[in-house]
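Treating backbone geometry as a discrete language has practical consequences that deserve illustration. The sequence in question and its structure tokens are set out directly beneath this paragraph.
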Amino acid sequence: MGTLAGKTIVMSGGSRGIGLAIALRAAEDGANVVLLAKTAEPHPKLQGTVFTAAEDIERAGGKALAVVGDVRVDADVATAVARAVERFGGIDIVVNNASAIDLSGTEQVDMRRYDLMQDINTRGTFLLSKAAIPHLRAAANPHILTLSPPLNLAPHWPGRHLAYTLSKYGMSLCTLGLANEFAADGIAANSLWPRTLIDTAAVRNILGGADQARTPAIVADAAHAVLTRDSRACTGNHFIDDEVLVAEGVTDLERYRPEGATGQLALDIFLDD
């Protein structure tokens, strides 16, 4: 695999979970990571703030900049981009990690939750990517990576949770559109999605354990592999984490199981057998 040494990444979210794992993997190479997140104060049930994440990134070998803000707010996004450029001289990579989830059915979903998912997931992805594009044009190997699923149009997926599906597929459509629109500029746009449940605090809170999951490291390693590929040759894809790693020659995926986990792996949503 290549290296992200000296690259500057702007990420939405990233205080914990998959986003933080991606940031820490990049930090091992010596990357600069700018985190735009709302988590200035600790959550009663979820560990980590944007400031503790920045400390973890520095300890891992990278340089970090914590920006308290909301990806739904235009001015906050503009501030994060401007501070990244001011601090590190440019932007090489955007990671659209922030996401909201509500799996309620159409009759049950609160429209405030619908709006929240649309604003964070689809609009936030579009906005952060849009704000960074002028700086990505100047980068040597620019990438936009969005944590969103393949566009599986099997009717049962929107049928199970239409509001959430619309917002996540909106993110994936951003990948297709950005890849096509900015191909001539050499800016790659790809999506990445886990094959299985991932052992995050949110999954543990919902399921009560992670026996059917893999660790966030599998998504982090897959993201690293994508972000070090040639941006002109690798764009417009909806990647699955383990497929990326197999293509990189990784043969032992058991390393990505939580310690003591013995359960059969559970597929993530939007993926069929």
Summary: The chain has one domain: 8-256.
